Amino acid sequence: MNKELKFNNGKFTIMSLGDIHENIIIDTKEKRKQREDMHNLVKTSLLAFKPDLVVLMGDTLNFRDESKDFALYKKALREILKPVIDAGVPFCYVLGNHEHDPGQEELVVQAYKEIENCLGENDPTCPRGYFNCNLLVKNSAGTDDILNLWFIDSNNLAEDQNVSMYDWVHEDQIEWYEKTAQRIKDEHGGRTIPAILFQHIPVIEEYELLREAKPHEKIFEAVEGHRIFSDRKYMLKDGVDGYLGEGPCSPCINAGQFESWKKTGDVIAAFFGHDHSNDFTGYVDGIMLGQNKTSGFCVYTDGCRSAVRITTINEDDPWKIQSKVYHFKELGLESTSLGPIFKRITDKQSAAMHKISHVAAGVAGVVGAGIIIKKIINR
């Protein structure tokens, strides 16, 4: 296939898929139904939106002991991506934190590389990570590069868990990004090409899209922050679109990646996976930050809110983009893997149900204990 990316009739459309977490081995009826639901979401979205590129936001496969079998891993990866492969749509990816877990990142990258419509090559000049690269997109005529796409490896867990649970994009990676961006600028006559960046773990600046919850919001509506933010509960600020289902699981260290984007001046939007329940979109200092909710059904999900994100760039002004999330049930699909209740409730509603059940159980326990004590006394 032609691996050159270009605008099509004045537009370039990207479909991004959040943490699918599919199973390597399908050996139960439940797993078959989960994959069927995921495939239906992807196939329907490919037909509806006709993307020019698909981006996998990391954690595509659930890693178990069998993932160390490279042949099995490659087979499972092709089966999971069958709708994209059959449609002949080019795709690229970022490594999720769980794709680092087995310590076989080179094999993971090789498995992707062997799929015919996979784009991107790891840049060996980047001193850290296993898949850092960029892809340039040409105009409809194919005569000029007018858009750049960054794919960054946000690594796995931090070495010191007392400092941060999750790792971060380190200073040497940031330096590589800045040098590469400058080279691209020099090769294009000093012109800065607008860029969209994809990585798995979100930047800590996402918390600037949130506000502290008011007292009446804290019980059922708000979410608890992650790690250094865990002493507070949060809601989305006015003007931020989408759904906040959990506190953004960013690293606790700010190594300056977001500030580097601002200084370099090319990144107009950055999209992240990692947080399965979040699909919000908002601006921080003029840069769009967007979350990709899971596109699968094998991990904690939001009922039928598993989703795809569609991002559209117009050729006449590639510095402006539109990005929207489309949920499974909004596409008119009917889940076979979820029961009648979980098809409809959100994660926050599910958590609230658990809280209520625990409280009810506690009350019932106290009442029951009281009855028993009273019987003993009577005896």
Features:
single chain; disordered C terminus; Purple Acid Phosphatase, chain A, domain 2; 379 residues; seven-stranded mixed beta sheet; 7 helices; alpha/beta
Q: Percent helix among the residues?
A: 25-40%
Please tell me what the overall shape is: globular
Q: In percent terms, what proportion of residues is strand?
A: 15-25%
Secondary-structure element string: EEHEHHEHEEHEEEEHEEEEEH
Number of helices: 7
Q: What is the CATH H-level superfamily of the largest domain?
A: Metallo-dependent phosphatases
What is the topology, as strand order, of the major beta sheet? 1-5-6-7-11-13-12
Average pLDDT rating: 91
Query: Alpha-carbon distance between the termini?
Result: 85 Å
Q: Pick out the low-confidence regions.
A: 363-379
Q: Tell me the Rg in angstroms.
A: 22 Å
Number of strands: 15
CATH topology of the largest domain: Purple Acid Phosphatase, chain A, domain 2
| SSE class | alpha/beta
CATH class of the largest domain: Alpha Beta
